[in-house]
Amino acid sequence: MGIVLAVLLIGGVAAAVVAGRDSEETGTATKTVRMVIGSEKAAFFADPDVVEALAAQGYTVEAETSGSWAMEGLDLYGYDLAFPSSRAPAAELAQKHGVRGILPRPFYSPLVVVSRRGAAEVLAANGLATPVGRTPGTLKMDAYLDAARRERTWQQLKGSERYGELTGTLFISSTDPQTSNSGALYLAAASYVANGGKVVASDAEVERTAPLMRTLVSVQGAQQSSTDAAFRDFVSGAGNPLVLVYESQVAALLDEQQNADDLVVLYPDTTVNSDHTVVPLTDDGRKLAELLGSDPTLRKLAVRHGFRPQGAITEFTAATVGRTAYLKQQLTGVRQAPVPTSAVLRELARRARG
Amino acid sequence: MRRPSPAAARRHLAVLLAAGALLTACTSGAEPREDTDPHTAEPGTLRVLASSELSDMTPVFERIEKDTGVTLRPTYIGTLDAVDILATGKADGRYDAVWLSSNDYLRLRPAAADKVVSETPVMSSPVAIGVKTATVERLGWKPEEVTWSAVEKAVRDGRLTYGMTDPARSNSGFSTLVAVASALSGAQSALTDADVAKAGPRMEEFFRGQRLTSGSSGWLASAFARRGDVDALLNYESVLEGFKNLTVIRPKDGVVTADYPLSSLAATGPATREDVRRVAEALRTDAVQRLITEHTHRRPVVASVPPAAGLDPSRRRELPFPGSRSVADGLLDAYENELRRPSRTVYVLDTSGSMEGERLSRLKQALTRLTSDFRDREEVTLMPFGSAVKSVRTHVVRPEDPETGLSAIRADTARLRAEGETAIYTSLRTAYDHLGGDRDTFTSIVLMTDGENTAGDDADGFASFHRGLTGERRDIPVFPILFGDSDRTELEHIAELTGGRLFDGRGSLDGAFEEIRGYQ
């Protein structure tokens, strides 16, 4: 998937400075762990508090970023772990590198649709979403895909005339599925629903679902290549009224600023979690992965960056108090679509881009 | 497409332009080439290939240098040319980052997109129309209700004229073109070839109202102020907000928005990309976002900073940018060769004795190359001069047979001979006389000379002749090109007098001719 490798050194030097000690002087061995990570976690590992928390456990981290699907093409010799943003590329990496056992998934984040109050109300009034009030809404994927198939426009939805910006074909903006994880996962969720609640696997199923995938993508025209860019356009008031982003981006935004304006978060009733999955390549890599999932400070910091730590939900729940109008504390009622194999997903993405 | 896309036709020149030929935004200021090679890498400095539109960001660059210790060294260039440079690998090792108004077109070229590692949108600005307040009243417009169709109707009724930048050179022009095509075709989603074809007749009407074309927003602004008889400008909201007497309207039926992504490059090393990341991070801090919106009237991309006062927060539909290169290039091609008013140009070419040898062969080479860039319907007059005008040969690039006109231009070029004195002003008068008569074209004069005026009229004589011009002839700009031993002051004065702009052909004559295309 034509993704370019980013080799970005993050946090290594800062870690040594913040830790303020030298292994020989203190006698505490500081281990340097080298990893390749998805870019959406770069801010987390560059956060001075994260650097400090890792140093307190004796680790200095050198992180380089890469598109999750591009890690397969990398020579990972000398790395302790790879940390893509979803399970499918992790599974392929594990197989390629002969990694056995359970792959740690320290945190995850579901894909959500960000919108504005007006657009969300029109969707709800036309049976495409549940009403939004003191809790986030739910986007009905079946109804949405049906509208997409028929290329319904906003003008055809009742109530849209009150909002000048709601004209043109109704669609969700996603990133380019051939280069970006969230765009690919959008096709995973949509193809699952279009395939009658079954993961697309056979050639016949690809054949059957590909035309709709093509519609979902072609109406968008030029697509952003990163979820960050798509989200920033939305924040600046530009772009389509419905944008697919990671829940973690919304959570991080709410953490930075209190006034969320008329932001509305819609959870698709069938979505895909971005499961940040570690492929440990060395013992140190595995230990660090476990630390990310178990250390209370690191879990809390993951929440601060909007991620949901695996296991107990208490941290995320606590952090979302006061923001339940935007974020679901628990993902009950949100169905997780399994992700097709990467060969199938790539084929869907290729045909969607046309 | 009958002809190569404008971008493709200009590919061989793109790098010449990148070498620093960009001129300042004032009417007649040509900068001498820098002595230092702009491509030398320096630690702590990022060499940035940047859209010309970012030249208003200097105070922000200074702030970033203070905050991060990283110096930004921009090379300004048109967006499509920048994409060409990336796609052909010519940015490798020469630039550390790319910062365009938008990466939408870049993403349509896989060879260019593969060069980019990460992109960080920094600010945004939608395409808008700035209309003189008196015109808004005359038309009885309520700004919040105005649509592209209303603009089209005003043009059709002869009640509105405007200026815009050349879509093949400038992202603001390209975005405007996409917005107009989307709105007038009634396309409900991303433009297709069929939409472009369908909107053709209405777009032709729309572009009949275009009175000014420009390769840069800066010259467009000064030409607009000078002319006084043009009612509106199409450009980014951020540019239009800089005018005092314009009502800035974001059409109700949709806009195309630039999001200015700072992009790091695969061909650079980890330390460089780390610098780009730090700069991107610094650009998104509240303080810098505030500085950006206050200083440049662009909109912030962080929710904690409100847009500067005067920027209307109400929402607009975003018209999708084409998702395929064939649609984008097809639209550009239609604009250049079918939709816009054709250009009509007299090339006043110094072929005096001093041009003998290398200078004349450079001129011939540059003109011959330029023929690949002439548009359908364009009228080109070659007017070589020495002690007086030697010949007047006019050719038209006919859509049904462009090659006949183009090869005639090349044949005339090959016949140029160096001989005689240098009668600049007398020859310019001949050019103005030739261009008499009202025609529905973008009309201009290009003056290429390698020396001072030595025969015929003097500067005062020409000035008094120019004062006597009336009607549309008074609006014809002269674009002089510095070459050889030409007198910069003399040429600057001609540009200023006629509302033209000076170009520097001393480094690359091809590059100067090519850059002027944006103004024709």
Automatic annotation (TrEMBL), chain B:
InterPro entries: CLCR, VWF_A, vWFA_dom_sf. PROSITE patterns: PROKAR_LIPOPROTEIN, VWFA. It comes from the Bacteria. CDD domains: vWFA. Pfam families: SBP_bac_11, VWA_2. Residues 344-495 form the VWFA domain. Keywords: Signal. Residues 1-30 form the signal peptide. This is Ca-activated chloride channel family protein.
